[in-house]
């Protein structure tokens, strides 16, 4: 066991064994897989989300072989309807949910000039990195409330660019890296938008930038040489989980430090405009019940 792995393991010392499960999206590789393993080591029942059945089963088997409890959940988060169905399935099978980690994401891609779209026709990074977490968080609010002191943890980025309300789908002068940073700005703003309301339900909502350019497929696909490890990112996420367990909410963490997100992510007018835009985009997936922020 190396020094970084020991640091991740020690970060769970003294933490109570959770009674309700944790759902980690994008848990079949990179940070998500490492985090699923770390949470299982802490005693969490881990709901392992992925797109590929084989890879999902592999992670579940790995956690169970190490003495943990884990269950697979398949969904393509580039489809908002499939994302909503994932939320409904988890809620039906686990009426109490202790932790939701919105980790799944899409980076800048191999060719940052190539604009990609989701299955619903949305710009891909906006869809997977932002709209899907919003839909999933909405769908799981009831089981999170039932847990009594649950958490939503959004995996953000230090790179944040305000969304252009006149071109939310980024159809003009597209750049994959900016599309990524726009989606992460939106995710941070969503965190701060819902934190106070969800606190009334006993749900803490925070956002964390785990580390700079971790050694993940997302980073290597973008042609970037990694600066840090997944183990370092995992330690930062666990620190944010511990902060939430102590009552922190509406916070942004840069690695293991409380920090400030982009100033406009806290702006009430920006939040209202983004909420209105988001409501229209996700309405077809959420059905007649409509958004519930």
From TrEMBL:
One of its GO terms (cellular component) is membrane. This is 3-oxoacyl-ACP reductase. The keyword Oxidoreductase applies. Belongs to the short-chain dehydrogenases/reductases (SDR) family. InterPro entries: NAD(P)-bd_dom_sf (IPR036291), SDR_fam (IPR002347). It comes from Streptomyces flaveus. PANTHER family: DEHYDROGENASE/REDUCTASE SDR FAMILY MEMBER 7B (PTHR44196), DEHYDROGENASE_REDUCTASE SDR FAMILY MEMBER 7B (PTHR44196:SF1). Residues 1-28 are annotated as: Disordered. The keyword Oxidoreductase applies. The lineage of its organism: Bacteria, Bacillati, Actinomycetota, Actinomycetes, Kitasatosporales. It comes from the Bacteria. Residues 1-12 have a biased composition (Basic and acidic residues). Keywords: Oxidoreductase. Pfam families: adh_short. GO terms for molecular function: oxidoreductase activity.
């Amino acid at each position: 066991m190396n020094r970084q792995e020991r640091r991740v393991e020690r970060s769970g010392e003294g933490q109570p064994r959770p009674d309700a499960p944790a759902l980690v999206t994008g848990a079949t590789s990179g940070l998500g897989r490492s985090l699923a393993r770390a949470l299982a080591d802490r005693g969490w029942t881990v709901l392992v989300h992925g797109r590929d059945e084989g890879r999902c089963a592999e992670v579940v088997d790995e956690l169970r072989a190490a003495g943990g409890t884990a269950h697979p959940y398949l969904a393509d988060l580039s489809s908002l309807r499939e994302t909503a169905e994932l939320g409904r399935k988890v809620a039906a099978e686990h009426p109490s949910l202790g932790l939701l980690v919105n980790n799944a994401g899409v980076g800048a891609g191999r060719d940052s000039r190539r604009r990609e779209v989701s299955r619903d026709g949305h710009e891909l990074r906006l869809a997977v990195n932002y709209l899907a977490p919003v839909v999933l968080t909405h769908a799981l609010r009831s089981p999170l409330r039932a847990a009594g002191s649950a958490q939503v943890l959004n995996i953000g980025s230090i790179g944040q660019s305000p969304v252009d309300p006149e071109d939310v789908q980024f159809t003009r002068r597209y750049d994959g890296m900016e599309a990524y940073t726009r989606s992460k700005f939106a995710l941070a703003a969503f965190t701060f938008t819902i934190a106070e309301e969800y606190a009334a339900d006993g749900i803490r909502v925070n956002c964390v930038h785990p580390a700079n350019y971790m050694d993940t497929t997302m980073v290597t696909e973008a042609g970037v040489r990694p600066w840090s490890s997944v183990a370092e990112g995992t330690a930062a996420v666990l620190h944010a989980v511990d902060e939430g367990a102590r009552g922190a909410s509406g916070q942004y963490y840069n690695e293991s430090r409380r920090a400030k997100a982009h100033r406009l992510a806290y702006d009430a007018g920006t939040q209202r405009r983004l909420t209105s835009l988001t409501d229209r985009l996700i309405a077809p997936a959420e059905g007649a019940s409509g958004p519930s922020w």
